[in-house]
Write a structure and sequence with these properties.
Strand content: under 5%
Shape: elongated
Distance between the termini: 48 Å
Radius of gyration: 20 Å
Oligomer: single chain
Amino acid sequence: MKIIKSSLVFLALLLTVSFVCQPAFAIEKINPNTATIEQLMELKGIGEKTASKIVEYRNKKKFTSVDELANVKGVGEKTLAKIRDQLSVEEKKKK
């Protein structure tokens, strides 16, 4: 009985810590308006050529949405679907 109680307390503590620390473990999203070519190349399906084209595009016109990346040659709908959750065009809020 004591082992079960200890195990339940441990699990409760583990769950609490995992929820509290979740933001610390969250992957930071890449902003295509500010990312370097190297950072863009970390995205699945984005090579050096495509990363360079993304930078060229944003130098002419900033991205207003992640969907706009489909306008860049080399970023198709399938690639965009794979990387969409890793991207954000929102400005970081200063604390």
